[in-house]
Amino acid sequence: MSLSTRIPMFLLRLLALGATVSAVVIMVTSHDSAQVFNMKFDAKYTNSPTFKYFVLMNAIAGGYTLILLFFPSKNSCGHMILVLDLIMALLLDSSISACVAIGQVGKSGNSHAGWLPICGQVPKFCDHVTGALAAGFVAAIAYFLVVLYSLHNVMNLFALKT
């Protein structure tokens, strides 16, 4: 792979790494407490399996990206890396989708199920979750671009061989 094709991929992976690490750090540091009817409750990311899944998937994608930043690009593992990039993009998308759904319930509640919104009581927590989701969206978009760019490079290799 030539230098002109490695630089954009390196920059996209660097952007994805920064976004995934930011999403993890923001989500892990999200906590707030409120007192309702003389009962204190804490809002933390560990209270929801969805938020734990989000943190885990972003941590895995960040670790994978960090490994690939130092992976020699002269190897013939392009197809395997393309498949793994696609899997990372799908895992990031699924974790973001789940978190957006839970965040919407936290923000607006669900009157049909009798669930009350909590963002009025714990705004700091909700702001952190929103920031983590924004960083997660940046990571997902970066991975989408990585997949498109990798696919383009793999298709060009096929065109050159025939």
TrEMBL record:
Species whose genome carries this gene: Perilla frutescens var. hirtella
Designated name of the protein: CASP-like protein
PANTHER family: CASP-LIKE PROTEIN 1U1 (PTHR36488)
Its membrane topology: Multi-pass membrane protein
Protein family: Belongs to the Casparian strip membrane proteins (CASP) family.
GO CC field: plasma membrane
Protein keywords: Cell membrane, Membrane, Transmembrane, Transmembrane helix
Subunit and partners: Homodimer and heterodimers.
Keyword S-adenosyl-L-methionine: no
Localization per record: Cell membrane
Annotated ranges, domain Casparian strip membrane protein: 5-142
One Pfam family recorded for the sequence: CASP_dom
TM spans (from-to): 12-31, 51-71, 83-106, 132-151
